[in-house]
Amino acid sequence: MKNPAETLMEELEEERKALRINIVLTVVTLIGLLAGVYFQVTEGPLLFEGLSFLVAFLAGGIPAAIGAFQNLLQKKLDIDLLMVLAAIAAALVGEARDGAILLFLFSLAGTLEEYAMGNTKRAVVALMKLRPDEANLEGVGGQMTRVAVEALELGNIVVVKPGERIPVDGSILSGTSAVDQSSMTGESVPVDKDAGDSVFAGTVNGHGVLRVTVEKTASHSTLAQMITLVTEAQAKRSPSERFSDWFGERYTILVLVGSTLALLGFILFGIPYAEAFYKAATLLVVASPCAIVISVPAAILSALAASARRGMLFKGGAALETFAQINIVAFDKTGTLTEGKMRVTKVVPLGVSEHQLMQLAASLEANSEHPIAKSILAHAATFNIAPAMVEKAEAVPGKGLYATIDGHKYFAGNRKMLLESGVAIDTKTEDALALLEAEGKTAVIIGNTSVLGVIGVSDTVRESAKSTIAALRKSGIKRIVMLTGDHTMVAQAVGKEIGIEPSDIYAELMPADKVAIVEKLRTEGRVSFVGDGVNDAAALATSHVGVAMGTAGSDVALEAADVALLSDDLGALLRARTLSLQANRIIKQNLVFAIGILILMVIVTIFFYLPLPLGVVGHEGGTLLVVANGLRLLWQKF
Ligand code: ADP
Ligand code: MG
Description:
Blueprint: H1 4-41, H2 46-73, H3 79-92, H4 96-117, H5 119-129, E1 134-138, E2 144-148, E3 157-160, E4 169-174, E5 177-180, H6 182-185, E6 191-193, E7 198-199, E8 204-205, E9 210-216, H7 222-235, H8 239-268, H9 273-287, H10 290-309, E10 312-314, H11 317-325, E11 328-332, H12 333-337, E12 343-349, H13 354-365, H14 371-382, E13 392-396, E14 400-405, E15 408-413, H15 415-421, H16 427-438, E16 442-447, E17 451-458, H17 465-474, E18 479-483, H18 488-498, E19 505-506, H19 511-522, E20 527-531, H20 537-542, E21 545-549, H21 555-560, E22 563-565, H22 570-607, H23 612-635
Parallel strand pairs: 11-18, 11-20, 18-19, 20-21, 21-22
Antiparallel strand pairs: 1-2, 1-3, 3-9, 4-7, 4-9, 5-6, 5-8, 10-22, 12-17, 13-14, 14-15, 15-16, 16-17
The chain binds adenosine-5'-diphosphate and magnesium ion (MG).
């Protein structure tokens, strides 16, 4: 199977060709029109005048006629047919010039529309251009060879020189640098990176030399996934797009039938044939739903292109439209409202030495991906404690984990984990726990048949959390809740700091509880769940619009979410919200405007008099305005 990005490249190339042909045809139509008008005003030879208008008719009308004919063969009516009929009708009643004006403006609008609709595709191709073709592969002896990025394998080491684009997704083995990730996340400030940090294909290395271990092959990089997602998003049609397709088709028939009936009506009312024909032709033009049909996709495709450039991936127009209607937001706490970079702040050994406790904790947590585990390992490393081998390890989601060392089963986790292990809680443990909890710290209990110690870890609330929550409320979110597996006291402390009502904080939840709460919230409004994708894929999928943050590098989150924010910054959530509200506003404006102008012109044509050229300008002008209004989203700052 061909990959979607390649298909897209080919499509884009074909569209480029088609666009070039269209531009030429539009220009030829204009030349024919101008020449015809010139011979008309200078009262030149009638033959020249006729030939000029014929050129305009052929260049402007034939592509539309072919399209309309092909559709007719499939028993489908389209708007092109209406335009061609109207132009022919105008010519028949001796108003070839008006017909030529119609065809020129129709052709121009078509060309511009085509350009506008290619925007998402161009955004994707821009992404593809970010991919470097070659990388510096470091051999066993330390020598470097240039190889194709596709040829890199997992575990290879590549050297990224200052100013070079990083060729792969991987982690830094050695070196420090500031990496410009703006192409991917939209963050303008370069991010400082050193050993152990992740880097992504397509981002730009700053001044340092980096040695990077390849962690994903070229076709699985975050960039490759972005390209696939954006490609799929633009192909999916949102509910209102489907509506305008549906509407367009039926409405075309209505216009055709209506204009014929109107023609008969005009004649019945004693209007001379030529004038009746002219009026009916004008009616065909002004009643055509071009602007209505284009108004929604123009806005949606522009919004998708604009957001992809800023590291916000909406997985289709539906997500974009629904996100604007959200009125309840449920946040995951750890890694979303907090940085998820935990630190050990207290170690309370109970019956063993501090060194023994840390050694044990590190060995257990080496088997977990949880942010808590990372903090414990980092803390142990400062005492030069390396984790020991364990025989068997088993994670207990929402609680902690078990592992067997030298035949003894140990556990690490929260109060629920203690309960699960069946170890009785003594006063010393209770005191230690109570003290940590009162300080708003997460307590990790380590033990086997008895408790061997308690480790307090704490997380930093994101700087932007408080302002983001306030701004979300301002943007029309009526309820903001926090869902967490952490202890109630910790959750309440965080909630208080960032402005979430105590009654909207749900703590000590198991992953399944989060899903149940999201389900309950769904009965109260439109819910968005915002998480970092670490063990909350189910909640992401359950909410109306699942938003995953900091998804660069996380496949699960990219998959499960409806909106993927590549950067790890709550500001992106606000920008995504602003963009979707704006896109929806523009869709509404476009529809109201397009329908309004259509009704107005139909009334004027039937009951008063509307010159065909004016009708054409009104109709095509309306279409262009609607497209331009959609394109606004591309240039807007968020
Ligand atoms: P959240 O992401 O909402 O904080 P999690 O389900 O990831 O929730 O974790 C819930 C709780 O389970 C944590 O607050 C912690 O107390 C405990 N826990 C989970 N994994 C571990 C671990 N590896 N070590 C210690 N405790 C853990
Ligand atoms: Mg989490």
